[in-house]
Amino acid sequence: MEKTKGKILQFISSIGFPSYFCGLFTYFTDFMDKSLYPLRFHPIYKPLIWGGEKLREDYGKTDAPEKTGESWEISQVEDNISLVSNGFLEGKSLEEIIQIYKGELVGHRIFERFGTRFPILTKFIHSNDDLSIQVHPGDQYAALHHGENGKTEMWYILDSEKDAKLIVGFNRDINREILLEKLNNGTLKDILNYEKVSEGDVIFLPEGRIHALGPGIVLAEIQQTSDRTYRIYDWDRVGRDGKPRELHIEHALNVLDFKAHTSYKSGYRKIQNATVNLIECPYFSTQIIHFDRRLEKDYTALDCFVIYMCLSGDLDIRFAGENRTHLSKGDTILIPAVIKDLSLIPLEDSSLLEIYL
Prior knowledge:
Blueprint lengths: L1 H13 L4 H14 L11 E9 L1 H5 L9 E7 L1 E2 L2 E2 L12 H8 L1 H4 L1 H7 L5 E8 L5 E3 L3 H8 L6 E8 L4 E6 L5 H10 L6 E5 L5 E4 L5 E3 L3 E8 L5 E4 L15 H7 L18 E8 L2 E8 L3 E4 L7 E7 L1 E6 L3 E6 L3 E4 L5 E6 L3 E7 L1
Antiparallel strand pairs: 1-2, 2-5, 3-4, 5-12, 6-13, 7-10, 7-12, 8-9, 8-11, 14-15, 15-22, 16-21, 17-20, 17-22, 18-19, 18-21
Helix pairs in contact: 1-2
């Protein structure tokens, strides 16, 4: 390989290309000479008025600031792009490594569809107070009004205080006029559906579904790569600047699903030492794995990256022969598409979310 590289560099120089082309060629081929491996990223912390301390105290985020509401684990949202924290790619951004490795990293079908844009955003969230009541747009509306994709997401509840609740959907069919009336007279809560939640609950939030977290909840969130949120009501709070945070009533009215649904929790059956599907949608597929013995994973037919979010326990991931990497509670790791076979080796009873597209 080195001889071939040298001949190509000589050829580039001989035909008069500027020297920086040689530098670019060397930069990319140096990386391509090395094998991809499971990638960790520096969390992007979001101190928020409703945040708390549980991510720092219970989920290994020891460097998180006070009142951290969100830890963005893998992100390519504008101005919030994850940086690799391990291996020879340390310090490189998610965007850079997709440019270098393309389908080897994300999967060839994923690269054909999304190019260098990573399609999934993963987070850990701790709500220590009520979040704003909000809704997200779908792809078509977001593209028309903001030039970006929409935001469908899901929540997996990791921990909750006694009687902790969240808001999801309406408790009866309504319309625009009813919503505006309730907003104006301060009785919005009368038409909202409140759900008591506990560890293991799954909430799917498609475009248009009104929602908000209540206090005392820790969860993992999987969503489209987007930070587009329309706030409907924010409990009359003010932001860090002392002013009320912006609301987006007109946009919200244009995208809201005003119908009540019979169930807002996604049911599944917990099976030990097996992969159990939680949510399957066009934007992500999420599975839960509870295991206390070694499991073999074969992704030959997938042609996509895989994300693991460690919800509990300690484990090793064996890949490419005897290479290993370790995961603990609160860790997230990206398995490149080129890695087709690996072993999950628990050091104690463990659980993972497995996410791909």
